[in-house]
Specification:
Order of helices and strands: EHHEHEEHHH
Number of domains: 1
CATH class: Alpha Beta
Structural class: alpha/beta
CATH architecture: 3-Layer(aba) Sandwich
Radius of gyration: 15 Å
Strand order of the largest sheet: 1-2-4-3
Largest sheet: 4 strands, mixed
Strand content: 15-25%
Helix content: 40-55%
Distance between the termini: 22 Å
Oligomer: single chain
Shape: globular
CATH topology: Collagenase (Catalytic Domain)
Number of strands: 4
Length: 163
């Protein structure tokens, strides 16, 4: 999978993962997702296997602006996922966009008493699952299933990235 990486000019915190580690993370996500649940495979159906993903690191201010614009929420968050809706982008093999606030990653790592690398990896796995159509916002069995998939996939990533 081709990873397009960008960082906003006002970001003061650098990514705790190098580009090669990020590429490895998404490679593991891609290969292991194919072995997980049938409903995830539908997104990666024959002939539609995603080949690209955009990852953008931003500041809390920029994330708050995204939240206001797209979710009508006046607060920051750690990650936003924008799946590629068919027809939205001419390249149908583009999985979507992930936007990450590195400041929120730093805070989450401190709160969870773990490294920023580990926090970023878990947040990216979470975003990956959203790009594939998983949802936890509405609660219920889908949320429970997403949490289980996230835990399983994060386990594979931890081993591959050596967290």
């Amino acid at each position: 999978m081709r990873l397009h990486l960008s960082t906003a000019p006002d970001v003061e915190v650098s990514s705790p993962l190098k580009k090669l580690e990020l590429q490895k993370l998404f490679s593991v996500c891609e290969s292991k997702t194919l072995k997980l649940e049938e409903y995830l495979k539908t997104k990666i159906a024959l002939g539609k296997k995603p080949t690209s993903l955009n990852l953008h690191f931003c500041s809390d201010k920029e994330m708050r602006d995204y939240q206001k614009r797209f979710r009508k929420l006046d607060r920051t968050t750690d990650i936003l996922s924008f799946p590629n809706a068919e027809g939205e982008i001419l390249d149908r093999k583009h999985l979507g966009d992930l936007i990450v606030s590195l400041s929120a990653i730093e805070r989450g790592a401190k709160r969870g008493r773990r490294s920023p690398r580990s926090e970023l990896c878990e947040v990216l796995v979470h975003g990956w699952l959203h790009l594939l159509g998983c949802d936890h916002v509405r609660g219920g069995p889908r949320a429970k299933r997403m949490r289980a998939l996230q835990k399983e996939l994060f386990g594979f990533v931890k081993k591959a990235i050596k967290l």
